[in-house]
Fold this protein.
Amino acid sequence: MDTRPILYSFRRCPYAIRARMAIAAAGKAVELREVVLRNKPSAMLDISPKGTVPVLLCSSGQVIEESIEIMHWALAQHDPHRWLTGNSESPFRIDTCDKDFKAWLDKYKYADRHPEYPHEWYRERAEHFVQELESRLNVSAYLGGETASIEDVAIFPFIRQFAGVDPRWWESSDYRRTRAWLNQWLSSALFQRVMQKYPPWQPDSAAASEPIIFPPSTT
């Protein structure tokens, strides 16, 4: 009987991206089930009724519903890049990203749903966090120092989303260090592997009869 862990994911979701990054870096093989958010499979909802991705069903039956916890689960088993070696501010900045920055990012992305203010107003609020990153990257190559850590991996998918709202503005903005840092992650071989496209999973789909093993082979 196959007891490989099962990861429910959605390719573009920043929470799912960072979980897949850690799993791929660790080389921990899981069965990947790509989710269509408007048609979530009942198998996922049965183990995680809140219906958000990523969700990991471990071989033991444990369910991990938070992306940061999935990252730690993978890296605790194998951490070849030493991403778990970070400074004491890492949890604080990740938490700020997930709460304050993400809230403003969503309003910036979907400003038409929040007509109280123009989209520039929401962007300016989100920029407070980007300015903090720029300051950090002015003194070190990565957010936690001279080597990459879980903090960088956890945060860059959200900055990717922020940059994608108005690419022309982003490219002309003052965030030169943050752009270079982001582009380094986006051009990495690991990110390219993580962002491969897969067919959506449902119990009666082809993906169900032939499970997708993630990360994909490099050969």
The radius of gyration is 18 Å.
